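Q: Hi! Curious about what Ribulose bisphosphate carboxylase/oxygenase activase, chloroplastic looks like structurally. Here's the sequence.
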Amino acid sequence: MILGLRINTNRLSFNNTCDNLLINKIRSNSRRGNLVFAKTISSNSEEIDEKSVKNEKKISDQSSWEAKDSEGKDYLYRLGKEADNMNISVGARAGIIDDLFVGNFLGKDSDIVFDYRQKATRTFEYLQGDYYIAPVFMDKVACHLVKNFIVNQLNVKVPLILGIWGGKGQGKTFQTELIFRAMGVEPIIMSAGELESERAGEPGRMIRERYRTASQVIQNQGKMSCLMINDIDAGLGRHGHTQMTVNNQIVVGTLMNLCDNPTRVSIGQDWRASDMTHRVPIIVTGNDLSTIYAPLIRDGRMDKFYWQPTREDIIGIVHRMYEKDGIPRDAVESIVDTFPNQALDFYGAMRSRTYDRSISKWVEEIGGFENLGKTLLKRKKEGKLPTFIPPEQTVEGLLESGNSLIREQQLIMGSKLSKEYMKNLDD
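A: Let's find out. The predicted structure is below.
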């Protein structure tokens, strides 16, 4: 037994944190056979060892990084588990957190995700020039945004979603973007292609994440923001015998939940009562909202706006489009009357087609069609491409382009080669 205690004493002698006085007491008690006292002293030494190790690992007595909560978890553990740090303005900045990891090789602001989050919003700086905004369109979109931002001051039920729908090519998205630029709104824009994924639940989570990101733009940057989904009926609509997928159901459920609880949005982290977000208005565009799940588009959740531009709206938009070419307003009126019942993008396609002959001439100047690829890429890289001179726009040239587009439309609708290739196709 004494030999065993000597072995234990030798082990204790190798421990740098053990006091020599304790070792002497253990040896003296081992000679008297007081095993109980030796075990007590040994346990006390183990407690001292644990405290010393704990003191060695602790950074500072005043550090909040190692502060324990009621469950014994420190701050970093909780932060990583909840993953709700959506602050887009504060990252790993010099002088703020851990200067050791903020070097000049990364720059003073080394938050890698910061630039990515900034790109989530759209600023519309590319929209240069003076464009026409339909007054009724401006009134509807602006009223929807304002109502959602001052909802606490109103004693009415305010729908979270504005559904803008109408015929194809009528400028629904472009008019909305012009209004955003005029009002200084930085929205987050999604498309119908993002409403489907090979992973179940991913589109719904994406909508919630971008909703929360728009909320952080409002909070941190002090700018108006919203969530805009283009062509929503292409992603959620039921056409013919198409089946609804799990992602379609989750997206519909997510949008309905946002309408019912616009300030409580979870992205999968632990639920906290204090986790509140700003109310973010949502704008969706589509061609036919009747194909969408009916409870989503009910009046309490979605405010509908049917956009069908009048003759005055079309003339105003087309005149601003042709104004830089020197086309007067009366000429624009005659062009619109010549091609009635056409979408707004038809008049843009007319102007684009007038460039065809000038582009063909320009290709001949740089070496012809045979050497187009090699010459175009090489000279573009060297910066030696000849300057392209736009054609002079005339009313006659625009009318010729419009008649060409009309002939192609009639040829497509009249031929219907699908009947020739698919004999069992119903009319």
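A: A fun detail: The first strand starts at residue 161 and ends at 165.
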